[in-house]
Amino acid sequence: MKPDFARYSLEERVSLIKTALGLTPADIIVTSVNLVEVNTGSILEDTAILLKGRRIAGILKTREIGRFRGDNTLVLDGRNQYVMPGFIDSHIHIESSMLDPIGFSKIVLKHGTTTVVADPHEIVNVLGIRGFELFVEASKYAPLKILLEIPSCIPPTNPSMGLETPPNTLTTEDLDSMINTGNVVGLGEVMDFLSVLNADEKLLEKIKYSIENNLVVDGHAPLLLPEELNAYISAGILSDHESTNINEAYEKAWRGMYLYIREGSAWRDLEALVKILRGSDCKLCAFTSDDVNVVDLIEKGAMDRIVNKAIQLGLDPVKAIQLATINPAMRLHLEDHIGLIAPGRLGDIVFSSRIEYIQPTTILANGEIVYYNGKLVREFKRPQYPDYALNTVRISDELIDKIDIGAVVAGSRGVVRVNVIRVEPGSALTKHIVEELRVVDGRIQPSPERDTMHVGVVYRHSSSGGYSTGFIQNLGFKYGAVAQTIAHDTHNIIYAGWSINDIKRAIKRIKEIQGGIVIVDNGEVVVELPLRLAGLMSIEEPEVVYEKYKSIVKKLEERDAVFEYIFMTLSLVSLPVIPEIRITDRGLIDVRKGRIIPLIAE
Prior knowledge:
It is a single chain. This protein is of the alpha/beta class. The chain has 2 domains: 84-380, TIM Barrel (Alpha-Beta Barrel); 388-597, no CATH class. Helix content is 28%, strand content 27%. The longest helix is centred in the C-terminal third of the chain and has 16 residues, at 542-557. 54% of the residues are buried. The mean pLDDT is 94.
């Protein structure tokens, strides 16, 4: 089903025509602005914008506004500020902000983002179709346009491979009920590249269904070989946000993929890829954030943060703005409605006193003033979330007690060769290494001198789930244990730590608060961040979540660690679709081979 704003209303269009001809007064007239015209790359000085209802009725010179003004027309004096279209985030997981859709909307709108394309596969993994419907309902409460993509891979790998225990699955038949819920524009990132390369018909049926229903199909294709990339694109997957180096970016751009250049909280690829923007006229390029946390949203911004960094890296300001406005709109086939300030388009307008560094002041969304000179002037209401969405940690205390961390091995002492996950903070990739670790009393020991500690996953979606244990290197964590329910994409409990007792205490506390992040040291909870909504998001105000997040950052800084790296890195260690090695509730996963491998190296 098309988004509501993409449907043609005769009544609305008649009103726009009359306003454009001066027969009916405008509701709002914006005057004396420098309009960033993203279609041609021009800046139109001393411009006025007519708005009627939620749309723009006309563009003209400020001196010409007289006959379009009525007794009830609101005139906004732009005072020679620059105005640009509302920014569009072409791919984001709202859940990663730790804010619910309402809290998220409030912050990103302040920073000039008026449209996001949300792939809610985090909450859908946890709650199934009910999670998708929850996002649809919540999006009705905010002026932010939350355009939804139907998750393509629930779970992220084919269940027949047995790499993890999925709490929910989506079939092609499920897509039919989801597409009619409203604001659906695409099929979410196709992460299961192995099934694509194997021409798995069930997955291809989802792609076929989406294309036949005029949905875009987004991709997730890190580090594919050239022939694999050819095959992946041939399936009909025409965008990707996983390029981390310039060669990979060109390989995808040359093959006609929409290149979404990602600049999130932990995965920051803009600096490595800016050459493709400076050195070529990349028609199929756009900016995206993918995953961005509440701290970066509040302190640094949303899409304005990415646009500003691109400008700092030498990109022309107008071109940088195009990459966050008209380019993503064209990818979505919605340039008739969003992505530029022009007649018939929605009234999404961002004011900034400078163009060399965007600092949004006044923001209009759908023809409504949301922020005026930096102050919120619109009320945000939050829906009442159902109990099933607020109580999702269902593990039993008996399971927690019996978790056998450290893996008992034959022999009471000695050294064993262990398959270890080596992470690089700031990168989504991992390395599969083999380390020799000591065995004491039949249990494999961590190695502080090599920063190699326990890691594991506990199934949280029922009282009778399973668990796995392993070892992770280079995480840089220095407290006794950390546990969290943010563990892409099935979002079980993932833990890491040095102390078995602290690990179990952290897991039990996660159950008590029904999801979130908990750090324990010497048996005591040091700091925690409750995330009650599906174990992924807080239902508190953004400023409250921000302060709790900052308290975790401060605690880790006391021991020379960076929370952002630890949290985001750990959250991806259970995602078995990014090379080279991961861990799920079933065990260690060799991603390339798509199989479970033993803890003890062969």
